[in-house]
TrEMBL record:
InterPro entries in the cross-refs: Nucleoside_phosphorylase_d, Nucleoside_phosphorylase_sf, Pur_Nuc_Pase_Ino/Guo-sp, Purine_phosphorylase
SUPFAM superfamilies: Purine and uridine phosphorylases (SSF53167)
CDD domains per UniProt: PNP-EcPNPII_like (cd09009)
Domain Nucleoside phosphorylase: 23-269
Source lineage: Bacteria, Pseudomonadati, Bacteroidota, Flavobacteriia, Flavobacteriales
Pathway assignment: Purine metabolism; purine nucleoside salvage
Family membership noted in the UniProt record: Belongs to the PNP/MTAP phosphorylase family.
Protein name: Purine nucleoside phosphorylase
Its job: The purine nucleoside phosphorylases catalyze the phosphorolytic breakdown of the N-glycosidic bond in the beta-(deoxy)ribonucleoside molecules, with the formation of the corresponding free purine bases and pentose-1-phosphate.
GO biological process: nucleoside metabolic process
Organism: Zeaxanthinibacter enoshimensis
Short name of any one Pfam family annotated for the protein: PNP_UDP_1
CC per GO annotation: cytoplasm
């Protein structure tokens, strides 16, 4: 990754009308419907954007969508990248750096995750307060990182406290049950074993997924305030573990999605 590549990607998007977005949004598995509320849409498919990776997961779309949401200019990643697709961690986080170059001032992230905390249930929404990086790498571990920002990035408060507070207030006002917890990010794509779920619980994880953490690390590198929510799509009880059903996960994500959209739209209103 070079600055020239990032600037080429951003220039391509600006030429197509991606002008000074204020907010970037990354959509997770089964969480794509917020784009239906975006007005005056401009769409750029990943395979047309210079140096962009391609989404290879069948239920991840592959396009950037620019437009107006709640009277704010937004750019939405409909389809993210994962290390389990064979990408390296620089590829996975490349779009975050491009959105930042375009001008975003805040970043919203959503994902679908498994509930490790046995007090949580499928269909719950969890506001991420902290994370554990178990993906075996860092998006800041490359030779010329100093060209893009500090090499050693403080992660004592990776998720913006002000936006977290506002989401909690919105959830209370809207009657949306909101859990809070720690998200563990693993490599995947295989799901966890019983022993791995027990390990995650011992480590202090409340939910587990295969994304988000690299994006959050880069957001912090860019000093870009970030907030993230997980839609919990399955319950990871090692003593009563059932085989995973991807169709059910997608159905639960779709059913819970309107609440996540409500939280994000109301948060945008307050910014």
């Amino acid at each position: 990754m070079t600055r020239k590549q990032l600037e080429e990607s951003a220039a391509y998007l600006r030429d197509r009308g991606f002008e000074e977005p204020e907010i970037g949004i990354v959509l997770g598995t089964g969480l794509g419907k917020i784009v239906e509320d975006i007005q005056d849409q401009v769409v750029a498919h990943y395979n047309h954007i210079p140096f962009f990776p391609l989404a290879t997961v069948e239920f991840h779309s592959g396009k950037l969508i620019y437009g107006t949401l709640q009277d704010k200019k937004v750019v939405v990643m409909q389809g993210r990248f994962h290390m389990y697709e064979g990408y390296d961690v620089l590829d996975v986080t490349y779009p975050i750096r491009v959105m930042h170059l375009l001008g975003i001032k805040k970043l919203f992230i959503s994902n679908a995750a498994g509930a490790v905390n046995l007090d949580f249930r499928k269909g719950d929404i969890m506001l991420i307060e902290d994370h554990i990086n178990l993906q075996g790498g860092s998006p800041l571990a490359f030779k010329n990182v100093a060209e893009f920002g500090d090499r050693f990035v403080d992660m004592s408060e990776p998720y913006d406290p002000e936006m977290r507070k506002r989401i909690e207030e919105i959830a209370g006002k809207e009657g949306i049950s909101l859990k809070k917890g720690v998200y563990a990010s693993v490599m995947g794509p295989q799901l966890e074993t019983r022993a791995e779920y027990r390990m995650l619980k011992i480590l202090g994880a409340d939910a587990v997924g295969m994304s988000t953490v690299p994006e959050v690390i880069v957001a912090n590198h860019l000093r870009l305030p970030v907030v993230a929510v997980s839609v919990l799509t399955d319950e990871c009880d090692p003593d009563n573990l059932e085989p995973v059903d991807i169709e059910e996960i997608l159905a639960i994500a779709g059913k819970t999605e309107p609440k996540m959209i409500k939280l994000f739209k109301e948060l945008i209103k307050t910014l």
